[in-house]
């Protein structure tokens, strides 16, 4: 397996880190209660999602790997913006220009190329199906 990564990643907690670099093995309930580990540390890092993507690829699951990579890109996007994008993608209220602007934003501001392509594809499909 690539880089000797094995599923589940939690079985090797020294190999999993938070976005701030805290190892999973260093996160304990006691440290959280004592304030040594901040709640912001309890989010997944894009590197962890990439490891999961490589595991999925090695298992012959390319679509799952792609989903992990999309998720990794989205870790850079603020939560409230993700919800706005999600709502903009609803076919009932979607607008082509708005979706294309979102795709550009994802690509330019967040380097989220996979997600930008996904939004552009949605715009194409919505147009083909006359959903705008």
- The total of helices stands at 6
Measure the end-to-end span.
45 Å
What does the radius of gyration come to? 18 Å
**Major beta sheet summary:** none
SS content category: mainly alpha
Order of helices and strands: HHHHHH
Shape field = globular
Helix content: 40-55%
Query: How much of the polypeptide forms β-strand, as a percent range?
Result: under 5%
Number of strands: 0
The unreliable regions are: none
| Average of the residue pLDDT scores | 89
What is the number of domains? Answer: 2
Keywords for this entry:
about 130 residues, Hypothetical Protein Yqey, Chain: A, domain1, globular
Layout of strands and helices, then pairs:
Elements: H1 29-33, H2 46-58, H3 62-74, H4 79-88, H5 96-110, H6 113-128
Give your account of this protein's structure.
- This protein folds into 2 domains: 75 residues, no CATH class; 55 residues, Propanediol/glycerol dehydratase, small subunit (Hypothetical Protein Yqey, Chain: A, domain1).
- The termini are far apart.
- 55% of the residues lie in helices and 0% in strands.
- The model has no long low-confidence stretch (mean pLDDT 89).
- The chain is mainly alpha-helical.
Short description:
The protein is mainly α. The protein has helices at 29-33, 46-58, 62-74, 79-88, 96-110, 113-128. The protein is globular and about 55 Å long.
């Amino acid at each position: 397996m690539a880089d000797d990564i094995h599923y589940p990643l939690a079985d090797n907690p020294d190999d999993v880190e938070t976005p701030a670099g805290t190892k999973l093995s260093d996160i304990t309930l006691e440290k959280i209660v004592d304030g040594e580990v901040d709640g912001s540390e309890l989010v997944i890092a894009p590197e962890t999602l990439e490891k999961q993507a490589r595991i999925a690829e090695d298992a012959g699951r390319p679509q799952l790997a792609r989903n992990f990579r999309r998720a990794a890109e989205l870790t850079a996007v603020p939560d409230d913006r993700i919800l706005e994008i999600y709502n903009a993608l609803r076919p009932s209220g979607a607008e082509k220009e708005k979706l294309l602007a979102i795709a550009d934003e994802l690509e330019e501001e967040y380097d989220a190329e996979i997600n930008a392509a996904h939004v552009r594809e949605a715009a194409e499909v919505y147009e083909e199906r006359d959903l705008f």
